[in-house]
Amino acid sequence: KRFDAFISYSSSNSDWVLDNLIHKLESPFDSHDALSLCIHKRDFVGGKSILLNIIDSIENSHHTIVVLSRQFIQSVWSMTEFKEAYEESVTKKRRHLIIIKYEDIQETEMDSMLKRCIKTFTYIDAKDPKF
């Protein structure tokens, strides 16, 4: 796999994702622990369809990290990324999907697949001090 993780997020949360999450994962205290991340802003191939870019990014990454927010749920492309990553986890029976809950979201705001995922997968809460 080319990347350690593909980061799936809403562009509305890009400041937090780029300044905090990606910065810390790509530039940790020990440079040997730096991760190779795929983000749509810099790694999607121009001229290729968005859907093919999503599929290739997920298939070429060991994990997909979803930054879950209300804006994420409202974005067609973000939810497409989630569904592709979820399928990768379920159909290939591997621990592919990592969810970071950026904000509290009620179950009534989620579609059935996302609800099932939140109930069955462990997730990280961005507000947790340990995070």
UniProtKB/TrEMBL annotation:
UniProt-listed InterPro entries: TIR_dom (IPR000157), Toll_tir_struct_dom_sf (IPR035897)
A biological process (GO) of this protein is: signal transduction
- The protein, known as: TIR domain-containing protein
Q: Report the superkingdom from the record.
A: Eukaryota
Q: Which GO terms describe its molecular function?
A: signaling receptor activity
- Where in or outside the cell is it found? Membrane
Q: Name one Pfam family in it.
A: TIR
Q: Which cellular components does GO assign to this protein? A: plasma membrane
- Which key words are in the record? Membrane, Signal, Transmembrane, Transmembrane helix
* TIR domain span: 1-131
Keyword Signal included in the entry's annotation: yes
Ribonucleoprotein keyword on record: no
